[in-house]
Amino acid sequence: MAVDAPSASVLNTPVNRNSMPRILVVDDEVGIREGLQALLAQTGAWVETASNLLEAYRRQEHHPFDLVFLDLRLSGEDGLSGLDRLRSGPTPPEVVLLTGHGTIQDAVEAMRKGACDVIEKPFEPAHLLAVTERCLETRRLRVRVSRLQGRVRELTSTELVGQSAEIRELLDRALQVAKAPDTTILIQGESGTGKELVARCIHERSSRADGPFVAVNCAALTESLLEAELFGYEAGAFTGASREGKDGLFAAAENGTLLLDEIGEMPLNLQVKLLRVLQEKSYRRVGGVKDRPARVRIVAATNRKLGEEVAAGRFREDLYYRLHVITLEVPPLRERVDDVPLLAHNFLDLFGRQMGKSLTGFSEDAMETLCEHTWPGNVRELRNAIEHAAILCPGGLIEEAYLPRWDGGLPGGTDMIPRDSFAVPDGERSLRAIEKRLVDLVLEETNWNISRAASILGINRTTLYNKIKLHDLGSRRAHGRGRVPV
Ligand SMILES: Nc1ncnc2c1ncn2[C@@H]1O[C@H](COP(=O)(O)OP(=O)(O)OP(=O)(O)O)[C@@H](O)[C@H]1O
Ligand SMILES: [Mg+2]
Questions:
Q1: Model-level pTM greater than 0.90?
Q2: pLDDT number for residue 454
Q3: 378 CA from centroid of ligand 1 (Å)
């Protein structure tokens, strides 16, 4: 079949942004190899040849191709088995089989094994070029899809990164409760610790994974709006309600998981209604009389201590006990410092890829600062700090200077030293003695957190290290985690 030859400009569109299409011709007949190489090279592609499978594998492993023309009957070799091996890598090339005396069965088998096309020899150059164009287009789309899939995986990743005993225990419990797809779960933890991530992780590892995951922030809406949002409403249920009525989030999350975030902020009246849903496993739209089945798993999250909210009369005790069946506590980041390096590297990889920068890691000082910061905003704050550094860093190692500047710890006076703890005995009134006492005191107060101590003392870390050496304080260090050169 003769078709118009595609223009060279289509064929030489790069498959990868920074390279021309790479084509390999594998055939034991030198005439075919050279003929194809000359024909394809005219299109602007980079073309190499191989006379047997071993050479083809070697070339493919050395520098992968986008498209391979493979002779089905190489002397003494089976092109079909070669097809498997050539396509076994992470981004397999498209393969077009060339057959001199092919049967339909061979062609069917080849396509079943993933060949892009089969061409009978002798071939029409125009047809061959048209097939080449189509296969390279397929390859371009595959590369693009796989990049996008990677990006989607990154954005929707529910991987809980962490190696500390605390996070491993949390993950174990989360996986256990994931297996009970109807059990209500309460997740408690400070802001930014990863409560929503834990909820998503449970959802994705449960039998509800194919259903939707829907999250609603109970603090963001007024009582009546939240009620309508959760349960939906009937036509004319209130002024402004649409004529047809509307489904709510219980319906949207059907067969999936509904995360009620900031449950501690839910108005008391709605708490009663939620309790009824949990007990009866059904709900009514606002203004409705019909019970609708609530086929969702409820996960509630809060950064308050719900027990204390109950004691203060702000949260219903009966709902608390109903939610409290399984409680997962997500520990603050400062209590699992072991996770900081791993999380930091993970975020660095992520932002490096997103920004197209080669960020190779952290300098020792930068990592030390990260490990010593108290992270009041938890993992979210760490993520933001790494993003900040990734933006500023031109490439290579993240130095301390690229990290955000912290003002020495939590607001609210946690870094204040009680006045009466700094009495200066009569015999020790030299400046040097006073400096020694002050540095010693601040180090003790901050549990040898070098960054915070330096910040409180108004000096940089290197100066503080020098003072520790000068006054020989390192040897007096009783506990703490800061590293001190002695
Ligand atoms: N263990 C972890 N591994 C990887 N990323 C994490 C981890 N924990 C938290 N994150 C990331 O930190 C950010 C904050 O997490 P998340 O929204 O789950 O916190 P939260 O506890 O729900 O916070 P808030 O109380 O403010 O709603 C998200 O970008 C999340 O992906
Ligand atoms: Mg949240």
A1: no
A2: 83
A3: 8
